[in-house]
């Protein structure tokens, strides 16, 4: 699906002349000029974005870039200061509850009632959406199977591991077979086996016409799974399009660092010397750090890069 | 010392962050000053009594009151600490886990920090003023009392710190903590009502000092009362007893310290140990509640009520009231009818802050887009049925205790009280559904029912009264009918109050669902933000 053509937005959509263009009613999500500030701090700054139906869309950006704020405004959980958000052609803020039932938003692990069992939580989330009990029960069974949670179906969610909790959260967002799935860091702390299974489920869902929107820090994951990506920085879209287009022939991560900036040389903290205190108590097994000619400490570099 | 400084730095930081905190702190300070002044003035006037150099009845009374009172204050402080302040308050030993501070240093730091807090300082000043009462008895007793004051404060602080440490260390599983929470609350309520029960169940004229003197004699040999007995030992010239009691106190501090250190060590050894996983059969109430959105809410609420010690407490009220009033009704059997009426008034107090008990879990409703009407309906369904059955049962027990069927007046009282309790309960439930969307205050987290989120005490002392006041106000129509009946002297028609109160209550219940639902729709996102804020306070 990579490189799929479509009515894709140009790079740097936030340019003022595009902000108040008509939103695309045929897109899964169409955002124009969305803005939000908290106590004078601008979190989202006139952001515009189109997400085509059937795409697997990744939102990436540094911490505090405005990804979560944007997703909250898109899903009816935060009132924007300005701008418009359409989901499948419907204004989110015109009939919020109706929109909320069309989409599936993955709750954070502390946004669920964790004293219910996994099975109960799924039934709860289905019945809350007005689904019939029998239907919910059979779908809950399927989901528990698909997410390798069937053995823990009757265990309280508060006794689940972090990864299991994440999976049950995702399952609650899928039980009503939504047309759009919105997931904030869905694979965080999920073990590799489960996460591979989840990815298969999500990719299959997108192939059958569902739209998946995920926000993530993990660039390799986005590059591997997503068909499209938007790089968000300082509350605006720095680049958006198919992964192939945005990466522009290189690595997505390099492109991300180039667009977002903020990289600097590894800072040399002279006292952070891994045991070489220089106070006479040093086990003399290592060369002092300054004497390693022309080399940088790989760890220090990695840390500063935030990898 | 660093920990003492940290303690105050944290207090000031919390005050900077929230003006409510500052107000709460100032109120705490005023209460402290009030206690000191009150004790000082009281002691001054007490000193005017004629102690006849230690031989009068007044002297024996004062002696008994000082030792027994001091012991009770000591025990109460520990229980109140458990209930209100909890370990989560300002300094939690777990927060120091990363710094590798030796256990003994940490424990002494925490104890010192406790001693430098406002309550400890206010307590010390009060105890230092207490010797004013002894001034007519000579310098020896006064000086000993002044010296004994810090000993008492150190004992109280060490003891309450130990109680909290033991409670948090020994009770690893959530279930045992929940049980302990309920037990402690029940003991506390029982202790508070002990004087009432003692006075009302027997003949007040027959109460003498002797049994209390015996109790004081026993308590004087425990760490709780020893410090308060010291001045009297000195006055009597009983120096051996004085030395032994001081040794008892010192031994208590050492023991508390050692046990505190042991708790820290144990916490570390068992940190992160997972508790036994319990699985539940089937889907519980989700299988039989109405197949609808509000049914899901009802089922969720019911499952939670069974597992939530904080709310279970409120549901225990009727039983507690019933026992208390049944015990006190020896002289006046009708007294037991207070139980259903007061239960109706108090039972929905927690529901008036129900959303705070839900915590961030409520966010799921906001994510899914549940209408306020459905939410309110789901909650009311559970509480209305439960309360109705419960109050009816309490009323039946009350009728049996007061033998209502034996006289026409008894029957009328039974009918009116039952009707009014149910009416009051329904009105209270309806109002709770409105108020819980507006006046929320932080509650302890479900995992740590003993902890106290910052800023809880103030709001918790104030907001519930809004609900209580509104409840009483909502029954105004019933009240008017009652007045008319009283004025027209038609006491034979009193039974009419029962259906009137019931209709009155049901009307407010309906209004609660409709208005509460609308209010929730309008304030949904604000509610979610508020709950997120409360969750941050619980960490």
TrEMBL record, chain A:
User: How does this protein lie in the membrane?
Assistant: Peripheral membrane protein
- PROSITE patterns named among the record's database cross-references: ABC_TRANSPORTER_2
One GO cellular component this record assigns the protein to is:
plasma membrane
- Compartments where found: Cell membrane
Q: Which domain of life is it from?
A: Bacteria
Q: Which SMART domains match?
A: AAA
Q: Where is this region: Disordered?
A: 271-307
State the Gene Ontology BP annotations.
response to antibiotic
- Swiss-Prot/TrEMBL keywords: Antibiotic resistance, ATP-binding, Hydrolase, Nucleotide-binding, Transport
MF term (GO), any: ATP binding
What main location does UniProt list? membrane
Q: Per the UniProt record, which EC number(s) apply here? A: 3.6.3.31
Q: Specify the ABC transporter domain's residue ranges.
A: 29-259
Q: What is this protein called in UniProt?
A: ABC transporter ATP-binding protein
Species source reads Bifidobacterium psychraerophilum
UniProtKB/TrEMBL annotation, chain B:
- The record lists the membrane-crossing segments as 23-45, 65-85, 106-134, 140-166, 178-199, 239-265, 312-330, 336-357, 378-401, 413-441, 462-487, 493-516
Superkingdom of origin organism: Bacteria
Transmembrane helix among keywords: yes
Q: Which organism is it from?
A: Bifidobacterium psychraerophilum
Q: What is this protein called?
A: Permeases of the major facilitator superfamily
Q: Which UniProt keywords apply?
A: Membrane, Transmembrane, Transmembrane helix
């Amino acid at each position: 699906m990579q490189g799929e053509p479509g009515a894709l937005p140009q790079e740097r959509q936030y340019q003022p002349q595009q902000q108040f263009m008509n939103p695309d009613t045929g897109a899964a999500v169409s955002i124009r000029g969305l803005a939000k500030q908290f106590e004078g701090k601008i979190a989202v700054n006139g952001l515009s974005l189109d997400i085509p139906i059937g795409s697997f869309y990744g939102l990436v950006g540094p911490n505090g870039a405005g990804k979560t704020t944007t997703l909250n405004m898109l899903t009816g959980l935060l009132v924007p200061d300005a701008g418009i958000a359409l989901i499948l052609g419907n204004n989110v803020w015109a009939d919020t509850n109706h929109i909320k039932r069309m989409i599936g938003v993955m709750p954070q692990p502390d946004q669920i009632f964790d004293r219910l069992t996994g099975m109960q939580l799924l039934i709860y989330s289905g019945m809350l959406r007005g689904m019939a009990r029998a239907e919910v029960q059979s779908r809950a069974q399927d989901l528990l199977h698909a997410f390798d949670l069937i053995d823990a179906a009757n265990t309280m969610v508060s006794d689940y591991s972090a990864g299991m909790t994440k999976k049950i959260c995702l399952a609650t967002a899928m039980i009503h077979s939504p047309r759009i799935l919105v997931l904030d860091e869905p694979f965080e702390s999920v073990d590799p086996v489960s996460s591979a299974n989840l990815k298969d489920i999500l990719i299959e869902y997108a192939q059958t016409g569902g739209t998946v929107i995920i926000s993530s820090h993990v660039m390799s994951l986005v590059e591997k799974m997503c068909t499209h990506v938007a790089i968000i920085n300082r509350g605006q879209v720095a680049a958006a399009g198919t992964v192939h287009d945005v990466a522009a022939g290189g690595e997505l991560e390099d492109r991300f660092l180039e667009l977002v900036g903020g990289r600097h040389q590894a800072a040399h903290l002279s006292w952070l010397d891994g045991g070489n205190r220089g106070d006479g108590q040093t086990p003399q097994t290592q060369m002092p750090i300054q004497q390693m000619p022309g080399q940088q400490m790989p760890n220090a570099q990695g840390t500063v890069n935030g990898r | 010392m660093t920990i003492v400084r940290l303690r105050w730095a944290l207090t000031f930081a919390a005050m900077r962050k929230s003006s409510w905190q500052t107000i709460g702190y100032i109120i705490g300070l005023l209460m402290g000053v009030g206690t000191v002044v009150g004790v000082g003035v009281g002691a001054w006037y007490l000193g005017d009594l004629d102690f006849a150099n230690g031989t009068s009845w007044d002297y024996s009374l004062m002696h008994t009151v000082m030792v027994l009172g001091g012991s009770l204050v000591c025990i109460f402080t520990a229980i109140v600490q458990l209930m209100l302040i909890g370990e989560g308050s300002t300094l939690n030993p777990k927060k120091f886990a990363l710094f590798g501070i030796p256990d003994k240093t940490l424990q002494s730091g925490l104890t010192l920090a406790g001693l430098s807090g406002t309550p400890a300082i206010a307590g010390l000043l009060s105890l230092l003023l207490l010797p004013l009462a002894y001034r007519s008895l000579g310098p020896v007793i006064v000086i000993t009392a002044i010296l004994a004051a810090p000993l008492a404060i150190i004992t109280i602080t060490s003891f309450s710190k130990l109680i909290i440490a033991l409670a948090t260390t020994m009770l690893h599983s959530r279930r045992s903590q929940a049980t302990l929470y309920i037990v402690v609350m029940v003991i506390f309520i029982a202790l508070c009502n002990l004087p009432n029960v003692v006075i009302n169940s027997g003949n007040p004229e027959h109460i003498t000092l002797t049994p209390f003197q015996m109790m004081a004699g026993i308590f004087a040999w425990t760490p709780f009362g020893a410090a308060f007995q010291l001045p009297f030992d000195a006055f009597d010239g009983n120096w051996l007893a004085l030395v032994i009691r001081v040794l008892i106190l010192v031994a208590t501090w050492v023991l508390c310290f050692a046990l505190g250190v042991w708790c820290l060590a144990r916490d570390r050894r068992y940190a992160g140990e997972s508790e036994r996983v319990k699985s539940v059969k089937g889907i519980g109430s989700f299988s039989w509640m109405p197949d609808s959105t509000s049914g899901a809410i009802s089922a969720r609420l019911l499952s939670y009520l069974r597992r939530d010690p904080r709310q279970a407490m409120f549901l225990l009220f009727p039983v507690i009231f019933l026992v208390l009033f049944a015990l006190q009704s020896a002289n006046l059997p009708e007294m037991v009818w207070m139980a259903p009426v007061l239960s109706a008034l108090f039972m929905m107090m927690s529901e008036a802050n129900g959303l705070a008990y839900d915590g961030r879990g409520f966010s799921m409703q906001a994510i899914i887009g549940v209408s306020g009407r459905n939410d309110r309906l789901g909650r009311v369904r559970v509480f209305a049925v439960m309360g109705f059955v419960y109050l009816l049962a309490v009323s039946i027990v009350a009728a049996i205790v007061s033998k209502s069927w034996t006289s026409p007046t008894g029957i009328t009282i039974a009918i009116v009280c039952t009707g009014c309790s149910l009416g009051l309960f329904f009105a209270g439930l309806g109002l709770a559904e409105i108020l819980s969307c507006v006046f929320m205050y932080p509650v302890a987290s479900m995992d740590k029912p003993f902890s106290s989120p910052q800023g809880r005490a103030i709001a918790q002392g104030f907001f519930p009264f809004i609900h209580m006041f509104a409840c009483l106000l909502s029954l105004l129509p019933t009240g008017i009918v009652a007045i008319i009946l009283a004025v027209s002297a038609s006491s034979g028609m009193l039974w009419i109050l029962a259906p009137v109160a019931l209709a009155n209550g049901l009307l407010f219940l309906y209004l609660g669902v409709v208005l509460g639902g609308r209010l929730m729709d309008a304030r949904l996102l604000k509610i979610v933000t508020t709950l997120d804020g409360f969750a941050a306070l619980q960490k």
